[in-house]
Amino acid sequence: MVKERARILVVGGGYVGMYTALRLQRRLKRELERGEVEITVVTPDPYMTYQPFLPEAAAGAISPRHVVVPLRRVLDRCRIVIGEATAVDHAKRTATITTLATEEEGTGGQQLTYDELVLAPGSVSRTLPIPGLADHGIGFKTVEEAIGLRNHVIEQMDIASSTRDPAIRDAALTFVFVGGGFAGVEALGELEDMARYAARYYHNIRPEDMKWILVEASDRILPEVGEEMGRYTVTELRRRNIDVRLQTRLESCADRVAVLSDGARFPTRTVVWTAGVKPHPVLAATDLPRNDRGRLRCTAELSVEGATHAWAAGDAAAVPDVTAGEPGRECAPNAQHALRQAKVLADNIVHTLRDEPLRTYEHAYAGSVASLGLHKGVAHVYGRKLKGYPAWFMHRAYHLSRVPTFNRKARVLAEWTLAGLFKREIVSLGSLEHPRAEFELAAGGKPSQDPPHNPKGSS
Ligand SMILES: Cc1cc2nc3c(=O)[nH]c(=O)nc-3n(C[C@H](O)[C@H](O)[C@H](O)COP(=O)(O)OP(=O)(O)OC[C@H]3O[C@@H](n4cnc5c(N)ncnc54)[C@H](O)[C@@H]3O)c2cc1C
Questions:
Q1: Is 426 helix (H, G, I), strand (E, B) or coil?
Q2: Is-contact 152 433, C-beta < 8 A?
Q3: Which of 22, 135, 190, 439 has its CA 20 to 30 A from that of 227?
Q4: What are residue 368's DSSP bridge partners?
Q5: Is 416 in the same domain as 283?
Q6: Which of 68, 16, 143, 49 is nearest to 408 (CA)?
Q7: CATH for 338
Q8: Ligand 1 centroid distance, CA of 304 (Å)
Q9: Residue 186 included in any domain
Q10: Are residues 167 and 251 both part of a single domain?
Q11: Domain count of the fold of the chain
C-alpha cells in the first residue's frame, strides 16, 4: 500500500528505463490495479536495444528484430509514450515531451507532470571537431547503425568487385575504426570476420585485399578485460592482418581520406567512430545537478543529489562506486552497472512510496567478455582469463543468459543453432533504407535521395 497516489515518469526505454519499469510494474502490481500508481515511460523507440548484441547483428549472426525487446509487450502495465523529453523542470515536477503527433500538429511540446522522476536517457557518441567526421563518420550505438554498417561493408565489396578504377577499389576495401573500447573492437572483429567469409563468394576479392585499421589514442585496447587480455587482443587482431595503431589519433577524414596523427593517409569510404560516449545532452535542459563531465550527480541510493523524488542510473548518472575504497570513484558506464542499478533504483522508489529505508547500490565490477568474431573471443571475469573459443563461448552463454525475456533467448539460440548448420548470410539489404526509390523511378519521378553509398555520387 502506498501513502498517496503516485505518477512515476521514466525517461528512456534502454537498460535502466526498461528494467526499472519492469521491476516497478511487478512490485507495484496491486497498486497499479487499484489505480494508486501510474507508470509512464517516454522513449523515442518502441523497443529496448540489447547493445552488446549489436556487433553480432552487424555480422549477421543475429537478426535485428532479435536484438531489440518490444516495450509495449514487456511493460504491459505501463503507459508507453513514443517521444522525447526535451526539458525537465523538477522544481515544478514537469517534463516537456515531443512526440510524432506534437510535431505533426505543430503544437510544440506537451507537458507531463509527475511525482517521481527516473531520468535514464543514456549516452550519445562523444565526437570531436575533426574535419569530415560529421559528414562521413558512422556511429555504432543503435540497431539501425549496426545493420546500416553491415549493408555498407557488403556494398563496398560489391563496388570493389565491379569497378575498374584501382583507386575506387582500394578506398572501398579500406575500413577504419576509431576507438578501441568494447564497441569498436567487437564491431571490427565481427565485421572483418564476416567480410573475410563473404570474400570467398567474390571472384576477384581476396581477404588480403581488404585493409582493416583500428585507431586508438591510448596505448591499449579493451581496458574492460584488463591489461594482459588487452595485449592478447592486439596480438590476435594483428595476426588476422588487422592494422592496430595505438597512440594514434584520427586527424581528418575530409574528402574521404582518413589522415592519422602518425602521418598515414588512407582513402576510405568507411570511418566508424566508436571513441567513447558522453551523457545525453537532454540533461543540460534540466534543473538537476551535473558533474564536470555532464553526468547527473547521484547518491549511492540512486537519487539525484539534493533533489527529492528524482532518480537516475546508467550512462547518464555519476553513481559513487562504494566498492572502490577510494572516494570520488564513479561506476563506469556499462550494462553490468546499468542493469543492477535499475533494480536498486526501482526498489528505492517502492521504499519511498511505502516510507521504508532505502538500499545502497553496491557492485564490484566482475570483469568482461568480448567477441572478436565467430569462435574468437577474450574474457576476464572474476579473475579468470580466457582466450579464443572458450572466451567466445562464454561471451555467448553470458549474453544469452542476460538478454531480456525468454522469447528473445529462444529466438537468439535458434538463430545461433541454425547458423551452425547452414552457411552464413552474406546478403546486403541496403535498398531497404530507400524503399520508395524504385517506385518513384517507375512512376517517372526523381528518387528523393541518391542511392546509398553510390560509388561516385552519380545516379
Ligand atoms: C556496441 C555496444 C556494445 C556494448 N557492449 C557492452 C558489453 O558487452 N557489456 C557491457 O557491460 N556494456 C556494453 N555496452 C554499454 C551498455 O550498452 C550501456 O552502458 C547501457 O546500455 C547503458 O544503459 P542506459 O539505460 O543508461 O542507456 P541506454 O541503454 O542507451 O538507454 C537510453 C534510452 O534513452 C532513450 N532516450 C535518449 N534520449 C531520450 C530523451 N530525450 N527522452 C526519452 N528517451 C530518451 C534512448 O533512446 C534509449 O532508449 C555496449 C554499448 C554499445 C554501444
A1: coil
A2: no
A3: 190
A4: 380
A5: no
A6: 68
A7: 3.50.50.60
A8: 19
A9: yes
A10: yes
A11: 2
